[in-house]
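Standup notes
- HV: blocked on the assembly model, inputs below
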Amino acid sequence: MMPLLMWALLAVASADDALPTCPTTDTTLTGAQLLRTLSLDLRGVIPTVEEYARVGEDGSVPESLIDAWLDSPEFTQQVVRHHRALLWPNVRDIRLLSNRQRLILEGDVWWRYLVAPSYRGGPVYCGDFEAEWDQDGELLRYPDSDGNLQEGWVWVAPYWDPTHTIKVCALEAQENEVSPWGTECDTYDGRFDPYCGCGPHLAWCDTADLGHNGDVENPPVASAIVGDLEQRVAHMIDDDQSYLELLTGRTTYVNGPLVHFYKHHTDVPAHIRFNEVPVDPDTLPDLDFTDQNTWVPVTLGPEQSGILTSTFYLMKYSTHRSRANRFFNAFLCQPFTPPEGGIQNLDNTGASLNLVKRQGCNYCHAILEPAGAHWARWGEYGAGYMDPVHFPVYSDVCAWCAQTGESCSEACSTYYLVDPQSSEEDPYIGSLRAFEFMEGRNEPNAEQGPKLLVAHTVADGRLPTCVARKTASWLLGRDVEGYEKDWLTDLTSDFTTSGFRYRELVKEIVMSDAYRRVR
Amino acid sequence: MSRATMALWLTLASCGAPSGGVNTQLVAETPLQSDASAGRTWRRMNIDQLRASIERVSGGISWTEEQDGVAVQLFDSLDGTLGKPDYLSATEEELSPGLLFQKFLDDAAASVCAQLVAAEPGRAAWERTLLIDVTLADTPDSNPAAIEANLRGALLRFHGREVPAGDPSLQPWKELIAAVYANHGDMAPAWQAVCTTLIVHPDFYRY
């Protein structure tokens, strides 16, 4: 086909008026071209022949058609797509579930390699025979040549495919919620207790195909964490909500995999802590893991701040600084960049640990640290809210263990300053790490969270201006330029007056003269 | 590939290329200038737009390939190569009509158009997207009016161009059909060449 295609292109290009050269500058689109452009931007596809017939003889596109397209589900998906570019929704690289919960196959029998020594004495699976119990209900186990004790397998209907049964080593298939030793089996401690298995229907374990470790293309849980974000954007459009709802709202969306994850897997995490769960399991709907396409809204607590405190955002941007940095880039159009020529003449002698004060670093961190403080109650490398009752700013217990040399609890070691690196940190011993070096004037940031950051930047105009600017950039294919400042001001003003209705912002841009010209 | 052909490709490929990275600095307080040059920039369709548009002009035929007995959607499996960011290793969408894009667009057009031309005669009239005003029995000699009408319809459907009857811009398309028909003695390859050329033409993927 290639030679024919080449020939064809050259033939078509031979006529002057059809020569596929770059277009001349600053062309006003014809009605059909404008319709095509609108259709691609608002729906992601070219028009039908019938739709071309709706272009007026004067080259106008009926406003009613634009309104219809703005109300279409395809437009919602274009807005979702635009927000992907702002938020980078992919958390496949983040391990969600401990490797010790991973079931692997030996022949057609599932078992856990990393937990097997606790069960059998070594990293071996059970024997390939159906499990048996004696008259006292004790599982029968037989020594292999290395002295490991092997039991048989049992049939289990796993949560990821409950209509089919699979063979699972009997010890892995144990369903005890609490072992005879008193271990809660759905926690980390269950890994070392031979009376703890994967729970009913293997609820506390996964397989490589489920991809909690990010090794498959579309792992159900990681995809659902991103799906929640996209559902929020979609509902903002479909329900004609204020754009600010996206950044301050309290509604999250869950599907089957997310419900299962929040109910059964948050006590055995890997890269991200879920000590404080993002969603109270008691509020979750009754969905099966296989309900991947069913999304149910769940109202969260008053501490929430829309996507900025979503599981996705907290996981993807795992430190307070990175959370603030993404917000400044995506919603304020203010990236943290060094001055032209870089930061010069640094003297790191006696450098302060406080980056607001450290020479050079303070160029960005004087802004970044107070901004990051808005996420101070959302644990770093975690995805839950650290409420003031359970996590006071200062802990006597943590201060005591730090100052006496006694062993500190995991909570103290994780969340509180108990290991000062210099005398500069001494005043903060026993304080939540996120509050270290925090100036008093920034404490409201921490206590009120990202909602306060949104409120401030709406009030000073930075947020609506940036939203208008990013949207114009998306639709024009270029950044807004200096000479368009007045137009951007008008867009921002109208967006604000509309109650931050994103659809109206898009409509104003695509109906502008600028949109109809192309260069 | 001949030098002339390469030059043509490079010409096509450079159209609509972004002039640089997105400027994320705050709008500077620069003096207001005339807005006479303000407007959109020509852009290349992203991969999702391209897929949806090809499926629209072909009546639902997509770019697939059988691999190990399974039909694989190549717009999905090649989307990273074609510039769609995964937001792990890439965060910016690549929208330049570079040679790699052109190569895959050729492949997609060839695949889809071969299927389309094969499918059209068996479709009901309202389902057809390419052979609207003609049948494969209509040749440049036997029914030139029908061929011109069909070309005009195709240019509208594929490129959004309303071309009047007898317009000189139709001539190279007519010559293309005549040449391929003369070479093959069959109108199917001629319409397949038209379809393929319409898709790889910048007026299709640029907007």
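- HV (later): unblocked. Confidence is low (pLDDT under 50) at residues 13-21 of chain A. Chain A is about 35% helix and 5% strand.
- Next: hand off to the docking folks.
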